Amino acid sequence: MPEANQRVFDVDREQNVLVVAPRGASINFRYREVHLQTNELYRQLDDRAATGVVVDLSKVNYLDSIIVSSILRCLQRIRGRGGSAVFCAASQTMKDILKTIRIGEAWTYCETVEESLGWIAKASAAKAAESSEPTSESSESSESSESRGRSDSL
User: Fold this and answer.
1) pLDDT, tens only, 77-88
2) Alpha helix locations (H) across the chain?
3) CA pair distance 66, 35, nearest whole angstrom
4) In this structure, what are the phi and psi dihedrals at residue 150, rounded to the nearest 5 degrees?
5) Does residue 4 form part of some domain?
6) Distinct helix (H) and strand (E) counts, the chain
7) Roughly what angle, to the nearest 10 degrees, separates helices 31-45 and 65-80?
8) What residues in the chain have per-residue pLDDT under 70?
9) For the domain that residue 55 is a member of, what is the CATH number?
10) What is the DSSP letter of 52?
């Protein structure tokens, strides 16, 4: 049986970007811990200062649907506020899993956390520049600039 109070996610903050590193599949943790720590992650994303999320996959070779779902809700939450999200540092096994579940088609992938932080900084700057230009295409061009800035696809 998994021990209580194990960290499900390591979370660091690099300026306005949360770097989230899942620590394994949900079977490795108590259900209560997964639930509580996912909710804590959502609360951190509710901070309006947060402009992006980097999902660092360097600590895992496998994630189950519960953890993937938690991560995707975080990414959708930040994107819904106009922020950016990036996956990074995945092993080949994790890249294959992400490709199989088609996450690589919807989210940017970078090789390192540092590259991801740079990508988010550029995307944030582009969105800020676009929002200062009053056009009717601002939401459309925001999506296209995010797509153009993709470092890699899975």
Assistant:
1) 999 989 999 999
2) 31-45, 65-80, 92-100, 113-131, 138-148
3) 10
4) -60, 130
5) no
6) 5, 5
7) 10
8) 1-5, 134-154
9) 3.30.750.24
10) E
